[in-house]
Write a structure and sequence with these properties.
Blueprint (H helix, E strand, L loop, with lengths): L4 H17 L14 E5 L4 E6 L2 E7 L21 E9 L7 E4 L4 H9 L8 E4 L2 H7 L11 E2 L2 H10 L5 E5 L1
Parallel strand pairs: 1-8, 6-7
Antiparallel strand pairs: 1-2, 2-3, 4-5, 4-8, 5-6
Length: about 170
């Protein structure tokens, strides 16, 4: 039985649609479990750690006021301290993102002591269109989040599980 012209046209259209969709941003990771994330703000580095071994290293961008601990909402600083990964956003405007458990009780108390809100929504995320447009001139452009490339956040999103501890050092 010979395929009809209509069936060939439908098959060709389907092939083109699949080809245009491009690769998925959701990757699968098979490898050692990430047991901790370590961020060094002054060196602009982030490491994914398994046990005592760094298995990945990334160059990072920070908040638009990168020096110092986050004190209150809107200060542009990236928090410092021990937190954990507590959520993920597959629909982030910055490609993909994983949430950091900021603020903790200490952060809330410190901000309240100066009559301010501590803020929230601190993430590790990709750049998305906005960040890609800025990164050539300024790596530190967020409101306090940690940024890596879109390709890199795809790996991190697959490798890091919710509950993973993250230590952010000055």
């Amino acid at each position: 039985m010979r395929p009809s012209a209509r069936n060939l046209a439908l098959l060709g259209t389907l092939f083109l649609l699949v080809a245009c969709a491009g690769p998925s941003k959701f990757k699968t990771y098979v490898g050692p479990q990430v047991t901790q994330i370590l961020v060094d703000k002054s060196d602009r580095k982030m490491w994914l750690i398994s046990g005592n071994t760094a298995i990945k290293e990334y160059d990072i961008g920070l908040g638009n006021e990168p020096i110092g601990d986050k004190m209150f909402e809107g200060d542009g600083r990236t928090p410092e301290g021990a937190y954990f990964i507590d959520r993920r956003n597959p629909n982030s405007q910055y490609h993909l993102s994983i949430g950091i458990s900021f603020p903790d009780q200490r952060d809330v108390a410190e901000a309240a002591a100066i009559g301010r809100s501590a803020g929230s929504d601190i993430f590790i995320h990709g750049r998305g269109p906005e960040g890609n447009a800025k990164v050539g001139s300024n790596w530190d452009w967020t409101a306090g989040c940690i940024t890596i490339s879109d390709d890199e956040i795809e790996d991190v999103y697959a490798m890091v599980k919710d509950g993973t501890p993250i230590l952010i050092r000055p």
